[in-house]
């Protein structure tokens, strides 16, 4: 096998990096994205999750505080799953060179450098896999680095690291099979798992398929494996190396796995395991440019785009006379396996870590793109002009026809499934936007690819192919950006600096632990779309209640939801629905409101520290789905009284008008209520619909709109209607799904005088917690007064087995209170509380990782010793 020139390899790799960087810079320049224009990537998950997380990371790096438990993720949670899922890419260190206000600029540069690095590693792979220093490897690498997956999901940049590492993992498998040297495969598979365990898991599945593919082809082509022992040796090396590589990541995987079991992802649905197809012929439309745009990011067919040049050459591969049948069959088998991994729902669920993706479907499609590029270059190496003449024009014609058929299929299916399948109707309605200009461009590109590959002189062919691929991938990226809800870069920087100064007054300046309800929406001015402020606590380094993350603790979310707070889905919990009682239970000290451009901080009247001594009766309270009933039960457990704390308002009248169509559009909220009630107690009045079904955006009370800041329509949320005196009338106007008889609406007044007595009683034995300074470990200390009647300490901290608690220096066992919060046993008199957090599974994971690294090192030494005599014998 010919030796490669290292100088030539690295030249091509560097050219690929620079060329890809230039292309993505050109696309960003065209779209006006920072640092080339006024727009920022404050959209979709980038704006709601990654920017806040990167900002929190920037803050941690700036102040060298790396706590593994954070009170800035809802009520608090271990951060290892979040860091493992979102932040372990080394490219994220770019934020160090930017201020917190300029993190969106850093995010753009991270995207650009990642895409450029995908091109570099793919160029390296193609040169080593095919043992060629051809400059055209750069062009094929660009087709992969700008494939459909990248063009549609580039702003979910945590996934891009897997595309960077994939060619290196494949190169490591090549080296294992060819030379029986597994070190490269071990290292890069470990890097893939560590940087993003989710796609790292997929890479492990792909590695098994690719190993079989390479082993079969290598033995057939080179005839180097002649004995069963040779097959067994390579197979055992692959299995053991993959196993040790995965186990070496245990320091991340075990704590992350324990943490993820606390999320809603631990639940499975039988519907996700049905062996039914996930898509139809619409997949063929995805081989053309501009097939999927930003507006279709949550619903689309597999984004298999890799340029028309690559597709024509892949088809050429299977009719080429110089390529053996065994190679064709093995390639077809690999492509089929990767296709079935997306097409059959059962396999698709397995590939997505046993869960159906919530938006951004077919996240494993880039593996198919990778193999297509590899086969396309193999066909190029074999000289595509050697196929028969009718194939040279027949294959592009088939490809062009399939793109048109795919587009027409979507239109036909949309009409066919209406009234028969709501799920399919929703799917095809989301992907129905057929850009016929894009279809025409796709057909033109396929025709040009055929002409360049089969009908141009050799001297021009490479240059024209490169020009065509660069034009296609750049054009597809631009078209995929259509409809993007870019944010405003300068507005973000100005708003961030102002709001950060405002929130700096309430982010625990004295080391005291408490929570803040933030209604300051100054930062929202930088967003084009609606921004719900879920992760502002990460942006501005304070402790809040809301959160939006794939790693949100489900027990915490359910606890807050049962207290009446709004939760749109299992990844989000908002602060809409807070009441004086929930502020008391959650340790909310201040509320920050925006007035004009100034923030106003209002102390919470019920704040009583981060916990307080309670009667054992609180442990007996079991929360149901009725928030008002739950609040009454909790208040009675805290301070029992004969009279209920919540008084049902008296119905005076309910006029309902059925309005089925509004402005020519059928409405899902046809029952328009004018509900008149009389308050039966003095205090705040709350509206609760047990089964949701309310359009809160239409809610008016005595002529005043009380629309929630977060769109809560159709969900169950405890909504404050205002403060009223006993006997005062209130008239509610709102649209709903049902008439009131079926609606089960509750409108209740909180007896303010009784609740004030409850707060006064609780404050006599409140707990004030302080954080101890530490760079890595979360430590809390405080004092509380216990009594014979109140022998339990309620803590406004989620129950977590990672907390080690000491009361007066003695280890105690925590218990679960109020569904998902924590309680500790205390003694009469003064109690000194110490809480220290240890990441569950952290020590076990570290031990397994170290043992696995040592185990692989020893195994590698053994394999190397065995290989040396064999090499001498071969000479």
From TrEMBL:
Keywords: Membrane, Transmembrane, Transmembrane helix
Lineage: Bacteria, Bacillati, Bacillota, Bacilli, Lactobacillales
Superkingdom in the source lineage: Bacteria
Pfam families (alphabetical): YfhO
Protein name in the entry: YfhO family protein
Keyword Translocase attributed: no
Stored InterPro entries: Uncharacterised_YfhO (IPR018580)
UniProt keyword annotation of Repeat present: no
Residues annotated as transmembrane: 15-36, 66-88, 94-124, 136-155, 198-218, 238-258, 299-319, 331-354, 360-381, 393-414, 434-456, 463-481, 844-863
